[in-house]
Specification:
The chain is of the alpha+beta class. It folds into 2 domains: 68 residues, no CATH class; 36 residues. It is built from 2 helices and 5 strands. Strands 1-2-3-4-5 form a 5-stranded antiparallel beta sheet.
Length: 105
């Protein structure tokens, strides 16, 4: 439990490889750690059942966000950063070459 952020972390049937997170402030539930898909959903007004969570059946939940996994998001972010950095370095290098070619002629 994180009382500062008003979050509750829990597992089902002592399966510590899969951790769920409930945000009391945002009224959401998410597959926090150990799931094939990362999902954040608004908690239904009527609540939810343990069997829905055990089967990762979030059909009755209004999806807030869904993605394949946290690792995929991190990899895409890193690759994008590297590509942007490479492009910036290439642009700076080209500008320096043009500048040095014009100043020597």
């Amino acid at each position: 439990m994180d009382p500062v952020n008003k979050d509750i972390y829990f597992t089902i049937a002592r399966d510590f490889d899969k951790v769920w997170k409930i945000s009391l402030e945002n009224e959401t539930i998410e597959t926090y750690i150990g799931f094939d898909e990362y999902t954040i959903a608004h908690m239904p007004i009527d609540g939810f059942t343990l069997s829905e969570l055990e089967n990762s059946n979030l059909d009755n939940f209004k999806t807030y966000e869904q993605s394949k996994s946290n690792n995929t998001v991190y990899i895409i972010t890193i690759v994008t950063g590297v590509l942007v950095l490479t492009a910036v370095i290439a642009i700076i290098s080209i500008k320096k070459r043009k500048k040095s070619n014009t100043s020597t002629h």
